Amino acid sequence: MARTKKTENIESTHSSVESTEQESVAVENVVEKQEELNDFDEIAVESLIPNVTYKDNKNGDYYRWDEVGHEEYLTFAAIKDMYRNFRGYFENMWIRPKDERVVKKLNLERLYKKYDYLINIDNYTRENIESICSEIESLNSRSSNLKFSIFTRIYDAVAKEKLTDFSVIKILNKRFHLDLLNK
């Protein structure tokens, strides 16, 4: 009898280990499902320039971003439709989805990496100024509002003494005809 009891204990321990493994596999699947996007997920979309508007033709919803940094919530389906029909909102860097899953799904990582690089004043050093100027010059004519936002950020950085390297300020003045020293 003692032998059977031991066998039962071993078998019950083995079955409890199997059920624990099955539960952990189930938990892993739930995590994967949480990372997936569905069309009804609400995604925060931030404006990178002022005065952006969009009308969703499918349902007639109207979205308006009045200033830089303003957020509107769109469904993932609306963002996909916007990307499919009006790609310029993204390619000209007028708006930016704040969910990295959306950025990856629409293959916009490189584009927003460029924006982050240009908008970060810490990158405006003697070593980087030529590449920054080249990147700003490479922005197309439809990105004039984006250039305005970048230049406003530069003006503010000079005024608040976050950008103090005179050679960098001088190059920016010369290349873009900015009057940074008199502000």
Strand content: 5-15%
Shape: elongated
As laid out across the biggest beta sheet, the strand order is 4-1-5
- Alpha-carbon distance between the two ends: 94 Å
Radius of gyration: 26 Å
Total beta strands: 5
Order of secondary-structure elements:
HEEEEHHEHHHHH
Q: Show unreliable segments.
A: 15-34
Percentage of residues assigned to helices:
55-70%
Individual helix count: 8
| Sheet having the most strands | 3 strands, antiparallel
Mean residue pLDDT: 82
Helix- and strand-based class? Answer: alpha+beta
Outline the structure in words.
The protein is an alpha+beta fold and 183 residues long. 56% of the residues lie in helices and 12% in strands. It has eight helices and five strands; from the N terminus they run αββββααβααααα. The strands form two sheets. A three-stranded antiparallel beta sheet has the order 4-1-5. A hairpin with a 6-residue loop joins β2 and β3 (62-65). The longest helix is centred in the first third of the chain and has 34 residues, at 2-35. Mean pLDDT is 82; it is low at 15-34.
